[in-house]
Write a structure and sequence with these properties.
2 helices; mainly alpha; globular
Length: about 70
């Protein structure tokens, strides 16, 4: 996608990869809020969000928030 001119981000959500392991419950609502905050603070424009597996569930969760 980047080679086709799209701006592409890959997020390391809480509890995955090299991110911190917080002492709170990890679920799609938390990850949805995290992605929404990223869209609001970093992307700051309308965006197409795609995800695979649990990332797809997280992308669906965005419908309950108000990203740009």
């Amino acid at each position: 996608l980047a080679a086709l001119g799209w701006r592409v981000y890959s997020l390391d959500l809480l509890g995955f990869g090299r991110s911190d392991q917080p002492g709170c419950a990890l679920d799609n609502r938390l990850w949805g809020r995290q992605v929404c905050a990223f869209l609001t603070d970093v992307v700051q424009t309308p965006a197409v969000v795609v995800g695979n597996s649990l990332g797809g569930l997280t992308a669906l969760q965005l419908q309950f928030y108000n990203p740009p």
